[in-house]
Amino acid sequence: MSMGGTGYGVQYAGEYKLKRLDLISSSNGRINLSGLTTEINIFENIFLNAISASLMVVDTADLINNIGIYGQEFVELEIETPSLDDYAIKQTFSVYKVGAREDANAGASIYELSLVSPEFMLNHRRRISKSYNGNISTIVKDALTNDLYVQTEKELFIEPTKGVRNIVSPNLHPYMLIQNLALEAQSATSASPHYLFFENLRGFWFIKTR
Question: What's the angle, vertex CA 117, arms to CA 159 and CA 181, rounded to 5?
Fold first, then answer.
């Protein structure tokens, strides 16, 4: 496994223990991919709004055709890294793309599953048309946790902002609203004029630039 861009330093298969890797399909239930996956890559970046991942799957059972992978499934991933003080990764991803299959040998094919955090997919399906009166950090929390918007249950790291603002969201996707607010926010504790909004393996962050 490699974790591109995470900074955790995990680069080799011997440095982690894969405890669970399941594909969840609404029509076919839960399918264990652990024995079929040859490579796992997880990506995070402070300039992106979502974590993403990819799986290289060696399919000897014609999995795509038998269960039907249409890009509406979920993958549950649980990894332990003993080399990093038993750091554990537990994430649910949405499947958004299935790469073209390549023949590996007789009866087997290789393909890539591209994954992204479910909140990212939900963000693209929902919009906020609403007037807010409050500080920006409170508005960001509402956009992320409100059941009508991103409705995440992940941990939030939102640094306080100062001032009460009248904000109108003119039918914006939640992440676009938050990105706009990041340019306007002012820290309640320092002179920092701008914020960053991103997701990593720990949760969602709305923090002032240093």
Answer: 35
- Report the predicted TM-score, pTM, of the whole model to 2 decimal places: 0.86
Q: Are 175 and 136 in contact (CB under 8 A)?
A: no
Contact 134, 164 (CB under 8 A): yes
Residue in the structure block whose two tokens are 């992978």: 69
Spell out the long-range contacts of 3-10 with Cβ–Cβ below 8 A and sequence spacing 24 or more.
3/41, 3/42, 3/43, 3/44, 4/41, 4/42, 4/43, 5/43, 5/44, 5/45, 6/42, 6/43, 6/44, 6/200, 6/201, 8/81, 8/84, 8/87, 9/84, 10/81, 10/83, 10/84
The radius of gyration of the chain's CA atoms, rounded to the nearest angstrom, is 20
Q: What does the pLDDT look like over 121-144, one tens digit per residue?
A: 999 999 999 999 999 999 999 999
Angle at CA 140, nearest 5°, toward 138 and 145?
95
Buried b (16+ CB within 10 A) or exposed e, 73-105: bbbebebebeeeeeeebebbbbbeebeeeeeee
Q: How confident is the model at residue 99 (pLDDT cuts 50, 70, 90)?
A: confident
Summary mean pLDDT of the chain: 86
pLDDT confidence of residue 156: 98
| Through-space distance between the first and last CA atoms of the chain, rounded to whole angstroms | 32
How would you class 123 by CB atoms within 10 Å of its CB: exposed for 0-12, middle for 13-18, buried for 19 or more?
buried
Tokens of 80: 């332990």
